[in-house]
Amino acid sequence: MITINYKNVLGFLKEYELDYLHDIAKYSNELLENKKGAGNDFLGWVNLPTEALKNAKEIDALGKEIRENAEVLVSVGIGGSYLGARAVIESFLNPFAQAKKGATQVIYAGHNMNGEYFKHLLDYLEGKDFYVNVISKSGTTTEPAIAFRFLKEYAEKRYGKDGAAKRIIATTDAKKGALKTLSTENKYRTFVIPDDVGGRYSVLTPVGLIPIAAAGINIEELIKGFDSMAKLTKDSDYKKNPSMLYAILRNILYNKGFATEIMVNYIPRMHYISEWWKQLYGESEGKDKKGIYPSSVDFSTDLHSLGQFIQDGRRGLFETVIRVGHEDIDLKVKKEDSDLDGLNYLDGKKLHEINKSALEATVLAHVDGGVPNIIIDIDKITPFTIGELLYFFEKACGISGYILGVNPFDQPGVEEYKKNMFAMLGKKGYEEMGKTLRARLEK
Amino acid sequence: MITINYKNVLGFLKEYELDYLHDIAKYSNELLENKKGAGNDFLGWVNLPTEALKNAKEIDALGKEIRENAEVLVSVGIGGSYLGARAVIESFLNPFAQAKKGATQVIYAGHNMNGEYFKHLLDYLEGKDFYVNVISKSGTTTEPAIAFRFLKEYAEKRYGKDGAAKRIIATTDAKKGALKTLSTENKYRTFVIPDDVGGRYSVLTPVGLIPIAAAGINIEELIKGFDSMAKLTKDSDYKKNPSMLYAILRNILYNKGFATEIMVNYIPRMHYISEWWKQLYGESEGKDKKGIYPSSVDFSTDLHSLGQFIQDGRRGLFETVIRVGHEDIDLKVKKEDSDLDGLNYLDGKKLHEINKSALEATVLAHVDGGVPNIIIDIDKITPFTIGELLYFFEKACGISGYILGVNPFDQPGVEEYKKNMFAMLGKKGYEEMGKTLRARLEK
């Protein structure tokens, strides 16, 4: 269960403000459920779990095959085809290990265009057995397409054309596009990116599930958590629907000028959950010159970095803090004879308790500094609760976007740099634009 | 050489605005050089290189000793005792390797209080030879002090008390404090954190240099780059002094309402340079309810995440882009018979060129979206240029803080959460405060 604690926001708003937005939030939630709002072509994720559970067996079997035949899976994708899988995988990864025991290490490509990164990646694959999962709706997005050219060539050199074809899995459109055509020609196994699920909402489609399964994470539990939250958030009362409550709170704060939201983690392996969240909210709400700017920190690390600013810098920030109730493995501080460092007062305390006290201490300090704090409580990090958390954020994002008055399911701004890049690189059809841009650069 | 290209800011300001701030910037630079301004007890870094070069030989020898005797160095520190070393080390690290060839892997502790992280770290050390470098002025900062209790116990179990003492290096105060006393009692080798250099300006003191040397990076070159920029930025003409120019530009933008600065990298291994920069600027300027909010992205990765927001979300953002001129290792896109992915127009182009075109394309797109772009040009990533870059940012930060009207060398806000935490955890002397806070939490 995910619950929202908003006690530390109450100093910044009146409770009736929640009621004033309640009907709008309820209406927004209904628009999502009934697929009647802006961007309603992209609402496949709202009731995805049924579909996902159908695919789960096949993907589970593929995960097993990868774990048995590959030390490394190269996951090729960018944006939603990268962040969802990474967020889930790293949430269950020992930070000093490359993979879970008996599972395949997942590494990422096609999410940057740095030559050195790619050279090092190819070197790393030498002598290791690997699979490639290339994830792209069209197959023509520049970053993953470049990466896949190199990886396809390398895989064919290592395993022959037929051998490589058995080790390349394409997650792509059901019928059309470059990657679909290439897959048919080369007999790659393909999995479908549904037409009605956008990249940033796609973690529980094959896009995210294949790398997650290869990494040895229980995808059925993940889907069940997602499903559980899908059911819960059909409720039209914000007191019972955490997605509605979160959407209402952040819109109230935004309307008061709190225009930057900082997602706060105290568990280092949840770092990429925040990265995934930044795409989800940034792409969904950051348009038409509107939207809350999404930012993130890892505490207590960054209390010694951005902490000073959050405490006392320019105001307009609010924080959303993920509080994890329990941790399995844990260590206790022990008494020492000489108490030079003055830590003996912590004798017998678990690090997790100390970490939670730091969380509570920080919430109060930041509230005193003028920073509203929303706390998201989750009991423990498990595949089920991470599934819940993902759906919670997705549903809240849709509601929040409708309250803000944007289409939370498009991303027209992402095309701007692409068009310029094609022009700069001399792509056919962009010649005139290229001239104009080069003239601007030489000015 | 580092140069600032501000062509893509000119649409947002008039050139005379630079001249209007010139005298103030010049005066601020002189305050730093003459140590007459606010926080002038902490200006040891301004002419640090002479001091740093004196220590370099001893630290180099220690680095060699560590490389010969340890697979792993655990660097224990938080804030400036963590980020500077990590920023430099990762700038030279193959992302798929744990260490440079023949060098020691540096791992980090004492920068969080997550029990699982720590348990995994101790497991990781099993069977590996290691050194510990504990970095703390006082020796009582909670996070590193807790980490060091565990590591000291573990090292003594592994190597015996005397053996451990040879493998523990303390970077701490010259004369006083818990860690200094403990080091004397246990005969640890110690290196000095100068009194006049604050954490976030300490990367070229033993704080940063010891882990950097152990990681196999040429610290003399790093110091020479730092020194070269220290000399260059004595110039009082912003046309010749990039630190002054950067400080002027960002203050002009801030005064117009551009209150969030996004540091942009296109080279993934520079990620932690941005993290270091966020501490430097966030802690220096974020006070008295003032300051530019520092944020960062890795492009092109995050063009498919925060890119939409930057292009078209709520305005008030500006970007500072690090453009690296050359890259040693590189790969070229090759023609393929079937051009399904449509990439053949890139035939023969190096990834680094494509990446730079993406950079230029993005700068123009974001400028068109209303986001001023400052470009910082550096030729290549080498220890020398990274040394230059670090000093460039430090000097600019001092100047910028003075223009803003803050003391760029204190961080009073960081104490707030600490006091609350001591109270919550029941530390002696905080009993009354503890009661009040607990009452607030239970409310």
TrEMBL record, chains A, B:
GO terms for molecular function: glucose-6-phosphate isomerase activity. Pfam families: PGI. InterPro entries: G6P_Isomerase, Phosphoglucose_isomerase_CS, SIS_dom_sf, SIS_PGI_1, SIS_PGI_2. Pathway: Carbohydrate biosynthesis; gluconeogenesis; Carbohydrate degradation; glycolysis; D-glyceraldehyde 3-phosphate and glycerone phosphate from D-glucose: step 2/4. It catalyses: alpha-D-glucose 6-phosphate = beta-D-fructose 6-phosphate. Keywords: Cytoplasm, Gluconeogenesis, Glycolysis, Isomerase. Its EC number is 5.3.1.9. NCBIfam families: PRK14097.1. This is Glucose-6-phosphate isomerase.
